[in-house]
Amino acid sequence: RRSSDLTSSTVGMALSDLDGALVRTNRALANILEYGPSELAGKRLDDLFHPDEADYLWLRYRALLDEHPSPFRDRSKLQRKDGDEALVYLSGSVLRHPDGTPRHYVTTVEDVSDRHLLEGRLRFQATHDALTGLANRQRFIGRLEEVLRGKNAVDDLTLFHIDLDGFSAVNNG
Predict the structure, then answer these.
(1) Mean pLDDT in consecutive groups of 10 residues from the start of the chain, 173 residues
(2) Cβ contacts of residue 27 below 8 Å, gap of 6+?
(3) Cα atoms in the 13 Å half-sphere on the side-chain side of 58
(4) 149 vs 146: CA distance, rounded Å
(5) CA quadruple 144, 150, 152, 156: dihedral sign
(6) Cα separations (Å) of 170 from 10, 131, 165?
(7) How far is CA 53 from CA 68, 75, 83, 87, 163, in A?
């Protein structure tokens, strides 16, 4: 039953030994990283880590070997087969023998690449004019408040207001 849970899950899953060699993966992980069904065989966890985050992730995995570890769940980057990055929620835990000895790492991967792109697009749309792509009034007021009261407050400020005759007719058109 356990193996069917692993293979039918929509969340990417991997079982690896303590040296990082992948022992078992599921189809969802291969899909997230754009590998064929059997191409993850023989790979290691660090083959999947994005180079910017490999050292940090190995520290997180090694900490799982402590006497009283806490599983982790981090927003992270993995590297797809073609070298592109996949933004994911990566969870790691350790599977122990009944005597308490660590045996395997268990990794789950939830792809949030599309969600991240959508969030960025929505943030941009909320603060920029749809027609021109220029910062809108909300962004202007936010930036002005930052300059006047924020952590980067300045003592001197010069503000120019330029009015173009008839521009609203062009903009509204």
Answers:
(1) 55 95 94 91 93 94 90 93 93 93 95 71 79 82 80 76 74 69
(2) 7, 37
(3) 14
(4) 5
(5) positive
(6) 49, 11, 10
(7) 24, 11, 14, 12, 48
